[in-house]
Amino acid sequence: MKRLSAYALMLALAAAPAFAAKNSTSLNFASPVKVGTTEVPAGDCKVTWTGTGDNVQLTIAANGKSFTVPAKLVEEKHDHKGYVVNREDGADQLQTIQLSNVSLQIDSATASGR
Question: How many domains does the chain have?
């Protein structure tokens, strides 16, 4: 019985990274974008999220720094991975990250501290 439990534990630990990778992706911003008051530089970044529906915590990591903002996860199909910005006060404000099966809509009011 102990052997079976040990195998089950090893299988669960080995599978954990595969499940975690499901809620992460990399993006390349062509130019700097703002998320709330935080500026994300142009270039590669890693995006991870936890939660579902209206209660998602979105973490963006770039250049060795990371921050977390609230977001909403919407299940919808897209032909390609991308992002949507809105030009505000002379800067591109990140609104949505679009992946193949979901969109992550950033709660801009909460992200900017309003």
Answer: 1
